[in-house]
């Protein structure tokens, strides 16, 4: 890796924490560990991390609850670990803002590959952003503002709304193509960048997360509309500066 990224591993099993710390540090990562949500928040308050590995089953607050809380004010990349391998658990994790999901038992090398992929997706420039140098730096829609330089989204009352890297890229894809019907395949091409690992099923989850952040009523969306048999359409006037 081009620099030493700081990773926080949250898992209540000491053997797993120690194994991951040794393995990831051997591959150039700076690793801190925590046994539960209380220790996790102590570390997050003390220093900045580039990625969080969060176990689903934890004493006290579980991983889903902690992920949802973190997503309230942070876009730190999150990879969730769980002994449960059902699709529903993966979907729940993605819906509350996780960037990826690795079921236990796992090969540490697979987890390392996922970490590298998520970090590239978070810090690199995806396809939809490659032309930002010549594109507008601020998009305005329905009294919302998206600054593509600072990656800040402000609601109509000028309150910052945190976005994950994939949420930012998805919103930018829509703002770059207002009132155009985009199929899932179109969105995949726009969102996938160097190292991105976004798959077809995750498109719906990403859109659901975006709707919860920008729609007045996510169950009756007026901005990101579902076009049956066609895909999705950002149905709003978009201006830029």
UniProtKB/TrEMBL annotation:
Keywords from the UniProt entry: Cytoplasm, DNA-binding, Phosphoprotein, Transcription, Transcription regulation, Two-component regulatory system
Location (main, coarse): cytoplasm
InterPro entries the UniProt entry points to: CheY-like_superfamily (IPR011006), Ig/MHC_CS (IPR003006), OmpR/PhoB-type_DNA-bd (IPR001867), Sig_transdc_resp-reg_C-effctor (IPR016032), Sig_transdc_resp-reg_receiver (IPR001789), WalR-like (IPR039420), WH-like_DNA-bd_sf (IPR036388)
Subcellular location: Cytoplasm
Domain annotation OmpR/PhoB-type: ranges: 136-236
SUPFAM superfamilies per the UniProt record, alphabetical: C-terminal effector domain of the bipartite response regulators (SSF46894), CheY-like (SSF52172)
Post-translational modification 4-aspartylphosphate, affected residues: 55
GO terms under cellular component: cytosol; protein-DNA complex
Domain Response regulatory: 6-119
One annotated GO molecular function: transcription cis-regulatory region binding
Protein name: Response regulator
Organism from which the protein derives: Vibrio eleionomae
């Amino acid at each position: 890796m081009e620099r030493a990224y700081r990773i926080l591993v949250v898992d209540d099993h000491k053997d797993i924490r120690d194994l991951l710390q040794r393995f990831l540090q051997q591959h150039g990562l700076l690793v801190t560990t925590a046994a539960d949500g209380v220790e996790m928040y102590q570390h997050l308050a003390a220093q900045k991390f580039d990625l969080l590995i969060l176990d689903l089953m934890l004493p006290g607050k579980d991983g889903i609850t902690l992920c949802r809380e973190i997503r309230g004010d942070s876009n730190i990349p999150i990879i969730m670990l769980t002994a449960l391998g059902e699709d529903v658990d993966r979907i729940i994790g993605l819906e509350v803002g996780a960037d990826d999901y690795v079921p236990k038992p796992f090969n540490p090398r697979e987890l390392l590959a996922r970490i590298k992929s998520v970090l590239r997706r978070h810090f690199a420039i995806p396809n939809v952003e490659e032309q930002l140098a010549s594109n507008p730096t601020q998009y305005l829609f329905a009294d919302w503002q998206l600054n593509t330089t600072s990656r800040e989204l402000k609601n109509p009352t000028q309150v910052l709304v945190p976005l994950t890297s994939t949420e930012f890229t998805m919103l930018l894809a829509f703002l770059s193509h207002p009132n155009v019907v985009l199929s899932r395949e179109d969105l995949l091409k726009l969102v996938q960048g160097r190292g991105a690992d976004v798959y077809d099923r995750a498109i719906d989850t990403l859109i659901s997360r975006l709707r919860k952040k920008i729609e007045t009523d996510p169950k009756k969306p007026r901005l990101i509309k579902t076009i049956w048999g066609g895909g999705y359409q950002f149905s709003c006037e978009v201006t830029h500066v």
